[in-house]
Amino acid sequence: MIIETRAYARAGLMGNPSDGFFGKTISISVRNFGASITLYESPELNIEPQPQDTNQFRSLYDLRDAVSTLGYHGGVPLLKAAIKTFVDHCDREGIRLANRNFSIRYNTSIPRQVGLSGSSAIIVAAFRALMTFYNVEIPLPILPNLVLGSEMDELGITAGLQDRVIQCYEGCVYMDFDRSIMDRQGHGEYEPLDPRLLPKLYIAYDTDLGKQSGRVHNDVRARWLKGEEKVVQTLADIADVAQQGRDAIVNNQTHLLHDLINRNFDLRTQIYNISERNLALIRAARACGASASFTGSGGSIIGVYQDDTMLNQLFVELRKLNARVIKPFIN
């Protein structure tokens, strides 16, 4: 029996990055790109490396380019972390796993290091495969916590729950991570929203940009933990953007989302340092008349466009910055 599972890229629509600070967000799954897992029973537990996991390079420059694009470790550590976290969870819950081994491999089409959550997609797909193989049920609201734990606790990756929630739930989800809610039930309040209510959305990602997400969060987190008023208030304002966005969507007032998306990014610039390359993407999209904000921590943007004429203009102008524009497939 061969088990095949999949998880998709995601884009933060509003509220990003307040999810890591007891805030609120709205995210969409982006089915244009995905990570897949193939798992089948075998005599020994075997993790099959992919070409991006190689330690052989043609030259110094080949190594440099590979690390810039793919990071230092590839996908194998993600699979190891997912498997360990899955076993630890089953032990805590008193779930006895069958004495079976497997071979597992991954594949991904998600552009790396541009804020579309390629790493967490691999882990989500791995959890789905493990749950199927061992016939284990993990409640949907709990699964994102385990995915996040695989990254943060096992691999030291700085991240928030938003990406893992939308990749587990899929579609479009409004998330409330209020501290009192998190303390009471151990996870946020997650409300699926009908993607058909959304306006016309585009995503653009920098095909040349290679950076490891997580690094940009460190300074802001330290300042937030110290209670710096500007940081605390700005993140609260960003969370409020998501609340307003949720209300606009359910009340069929999606014309308000254009300004809310722009406000999300403008607030972000008050506490984060934004690279000139990322700012160029935002400026180019807004010059076309579209709204623009980050999908994650940089490298890709999302916004509302008005019509096909504007979309074509986005294609042309963002291509000049080596950025690819897509219409996200959400359902």
Describe the structure.
The protein has 331 residues and is α+β, with helices and mostly antiparallel strands. The chain has two domains: 2-193, Ribosomal Protein S5, domain 2; 197-326, 2-Layer Sandwich (Alpha-Beta Plaits). It contains eleven helices and ten strands. The strands form two sheets. Strands 1, 2, 3, 4, 5 and 6 form a six-stranded mixed β-sheet that branches. Strands 8-9-7-10 form a four-stranded antiparallel β-sheet. The longest helix is centred in the C-terminal third of the chain and has 22 residues, at 229-250. The two termini are 28 Å apart. One of its GO terms (molecular function) is ATP binding. Keywords: ATP-binding, Kinase, Nucleotide-binding, Transferase.
Write the layout of secondary structure elements.
Elements: E1 2-14, E2 24-41, E3 46-47, H1 60-70, H2 76-92, E4 102-108, H3 118-134, H4 143-155, H5 161-169, E5 172-176, H6 179-185, E6 189-193, E7 201-206, H7 217-225, H8 229-250, H9 257-268, H10 276-287, E8 293-294, E9 300-304, H11 308-319, E10 323-326
Parallel strand pairs: 3-4
Antiparallel strand pairs: 1-2, 2-4, 2-5, 5-6, 7-9, 7-10, 8-9
Helix pairs in contact: 2-3, 2-4, 3-4, 4-5, 8-9
